[in-house]
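Ligand-bound model needed. uracil.
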Amino acid sequence: MNPVELIRRKRNGEHLSRTELEQFIDGYVKGSLPDYQMTAFLMAVFFQGMTPEETRVFTEVMLHSGEVIDLGTLPGIKVDKHSTGGVGDKVSLILAPMVAACGVPVPMISGRGLGHTGGTLDKLESIPGFRTDLSIEEYKKIVGELGVVLIGQTEKLVPADRKMYALRDVTATVESIPLIAGSIMSKKLAEGIDALVLDIKTGNGAFMKSQEDSLALGSTLVGLGNQMGKKTVGFVTDMSQPLGTKIGNWLEVVESVDCLRGKRIPDLMEVTYVLGGAMVWLGGKAASIHEGMKLCQDAIWSGKAYEKFLQLVTRQGGDSQLLENLDRYPESDHSIDVISPLDGYVAGFDTFGIGVLATELGAGRLKVDDVIDPKAGIQLQKKVGDAVQKGESIATLSTDKSEIIQKAAKRFLACISVKGSAPPVLPAIHKYIDDKGQHPWTAPSLY
Ligand code: URA
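Prediction:
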């Protein structure tokens, strides 16, 4: 293989063969192909795209760059969920134990915060003692015992993505449908699952901002999953405002615990029940997604989902006593209320801006080696459509960084629009995608 020729052909919009992709990616993983040639290839794909067939082959090559877990000896249909990433998205923390409590095994391998978005691993690690760096043997053991496990990517799974993702992050080549599809689906297919539910976020807090792009990404992901033998469905869900009311690692654990104990946070629980209902249906425990949603609701109301979460936390080394006494957690040194300067209705948020702000308060990483402050974050008192009076608090920001807090409050105010009349409230679920195509989502809400 001549890497320069391969890059030139991709740059000119040609279709690469399996052997070419295998040799190129293998060379990169082994270190014989340098970052600058991979960067040129990624940029060529960014501009030229890939055909559906090429995307499938690319995903398979990524998948086989490392180990593929076999969970075949464990009983049950193993189902996972993956979100393309958003602000305040703590769905996995509620959904994984909830679905497991319905009898469907959930082996979940999650990621860390990326750019302005939060990551499930960082949220879980805000629980003192919680270990996400388990071996594949421990992963298999825990899902077999408890029906649920939540870990991080290991060295052995999809090493090509680990290296390529880090490079994409610093070369402006993240927002490409074939590259995102290959990255997400190779990791999910390596987990040993039988079926998958995808949450494709859309709106100003998502990687894909327009519905059109989100639908195109969703159809590619769902198509790939089904072609590769895993029953896969997807939902395009709203990310034009943060999900729920809390953003920041421990704050999101608190909101998840509240919801597991039955608190109603409408947008968050709507998305959680729909995705969970689809998992229970794919896992063979319900005749339809809607029936699955009702089983999920029973798991919350009966306390079984919360009980499963406590068991999971204990099993993975976390302090579950603290979850029973949430106010024992230390607080940030500084907090500030963001005050509305006028009467009106919250008409919208700059969700991306809020995600960046949460990161700067300490909830995320600005550089790869930054240490996260688990206490830092934002609590919203108002969501889109809520009435607000002049002088009332819209949000509270918490951080240990006294030097940035005043400025952060001003910046938060610039991320909100308050208008004289109530805006139309966007649905939490925009579309449903399965192997037959894209459909409006019409199932009755549980609220
Ligand atoms: N999440 C991933 O895992 N990969 C991407 O490329 C984008 C989001």
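The radius of gyration is 22 Å.
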